[in-house]
Amino acid sequence: MRFMMLIHHDEPALAAAPQKELWAEYAAFNEALAKAAGSAPGERLQPSSAATTVRQHDGKTDVLDGPYADTKEQFAGYFFVEAPSLDEAIA
């Protein structure tokens, strides 16, 4: 079964985090994921400041600069994981 893992983060908190440790942990995660059968590399998105949101309602289209939702966390990217069950995908 194929599962999609969504990545969300708080951009200001991420910028303030110790970068060397943060990216070492991320590299270790990517290495473990690469070793897992059926996994696919992640797709990282641009920061929310680069986002464009397109909404259509009642035949009218609105194009907005910025993230799709006003939240503390931003959608940052995704991974696909192949696993026999949800429990194994979570593990």
Provide an overview of this structure.
The chain has three helices and five strands, in the order E-H-H-E-E-E-E-H. The chain is α+β, with helices and mostly antiparallel strands. The protein has a single domain, classed as Dimeric alpha+beta barrel (Alpha-Beta Plaits), CATH 3.30.70.
Sum up the structure in keywords.
91 residues; two-stranded antiparallel sheet; alpha+beta; 3 helices
Shape: flat
Mean pLDDT: 78
- Strand percentage, roughly? 35-45%
The profile of the biggest β sheet is: 3 strands, antiparallel
Name given to the CATH architecture = 2-Layer Sandwich
Q: How many DSSP H or I helices?
A: 3
**Corresponding CATH superfamily:** Dimeric alpha+beta barrel
C-alpha-based Rg, rounded: 16 Å
CATH topology descriptor: Alpha-Beta Plaits
SSE run: EHHEEEEH
Report the end-to-end length measured between terminal Cα atoms. 14 Å
Please give the domain count: 1
Note poorly predicted spans. Answer: none
Read across the widest sheet, the strand sequence of neighbours is 1-5-2
How is the secondary structure organized here?
Elements lengths: L1 E8 L1 H6 L2 H17 L4 E5 L7 E6 L2 E6 L8 E9 L3 H5 L1
Antiparallel strand pairs: 1-5, 2-5, 3-4
Short description:
The protein has helices at residues 11-16, 19-35, 86-90, and strands at residues 2-9, 40-44, 52-57, 60-65, 74-82. The protein is of the alpha+beta class. The model has no long low-confidence stretch (mean pLDDT 78).
